[in-house]
Amino acid sequence: VIDVEYELAVDYTYWLFIGFIDAIVQMPDGTCWILEHKTLTREPDFYELFFSLQASGYMWAAQRDPVLSQLDIKGVIFNLLLKTEVKPPKVLKSRKLSKDKRQATSIEMYRQAIADNGLNPADYEQFILGIDPNRYNKRKKIVPTPAMIDWFDDTIRTVGMEMCSNPVIYPAQARDCTWCDFKLLCTWVRNGLDWRSIVSAKFVERGSIDIKAMEELSDA
């Protein structure tokens, strides 16, 4: 592990992009990767991760970060942690253990259940060999192509220009509200409270942005 909770700071012409990377790791072959932890209710397939904005965005930022750009980051490793409650195997009416492959159990729990119920390990060895030890914790390597990183560059530039063009802003109730930086302000507005009293204490006014100059940059 090279670093954990690494803070990215990318100076991108008119904007400063700041974010955090879970970890930077170096593999035995010497290659360096970004490590991203993800807790999920289901396992995403390879293409879902490959075409996600997150992988391309990390590589885009790594190529521009003064420190990471020196490491020649190869790609992103997603450490997938499935939020599944693992339980001991079901004990059948026959007092034998269930061999249903769909049950959420582990090799360790299955062996312990064999011992606790005084059963013959040989009767279950073949089934245990079929249990994936990494069923609830898998790692997938994603290497975005140069074209995907260029596409992200175009996308983030377009989004940035739109955000800084004084657009009409209105709240949209969604799961994203949980981590929105303006959640407190939005809550006060919706409840008819004096939201202006917290603006100066909690927020900083955004400076003026030269929209025309950004448009010229986009056309370049």
From TrEMBL:
InterPro entries: PDDEXK-like_dom_sf, PDDEXK_AddAB-type. Residues 4-186 form the PD-(D/E)XK endonuclease-like domain. Transmembrane segments: none annotated. This is PD-(D/E)XK endonuclease-like domain-containing protein.
